[in-house]
Amino acid sequence: MPPMHTPEDRAEVERRLVDLEMKLAFAEDLVDRLNDIVTRQQGQIDRLLNDVRQLRQVAAAGEPAAGFRSLRDELPPHY
Fold it and tell me: Cα(38)–Cα(43) distance, rounded to whole angstroms?
């Protein structure tokens, strides 16, 4: 004979199901936000790597980088 389920048992199961659905919704939202953050950070990393690559090329060529000023340019005139 199968066990009898009381209205209280059904209410408990319903409450637990609703709790699980809410947790799942929050978890999905968190995963979406984290994915957005990772995507944005990957774009930043790609840009930084490109900048470093360009700086290495400039340094290897021996040319000053755009906007680079020597510290000698900052010396007072009496030196």
Answer: 9
Rounded Cα distance between 39 and 33, Å, is 10
Written as six digits, the tokens of 18 are 């609703």
Distances (CA, A) of 23 to 14, 34, 35: 14, 16, 18
Q: Where are the domains of the chain?
A: 7-58
Q: Which residue has 């900052």 as its token pair?
A: 74
State the Cα–Cα distance between residues 57 and 71, nearest whole angstrom.
22
Q: 10-57 pLDDT, tens per residue?
A: 999 999 999 999 999 999 999 999 999 999 999 999 999 999 999 999
Give the DSSP letter of residue 21: H
Q: Report the distance separating Cα 17 and Cα 14, nearest Å.
A: 5
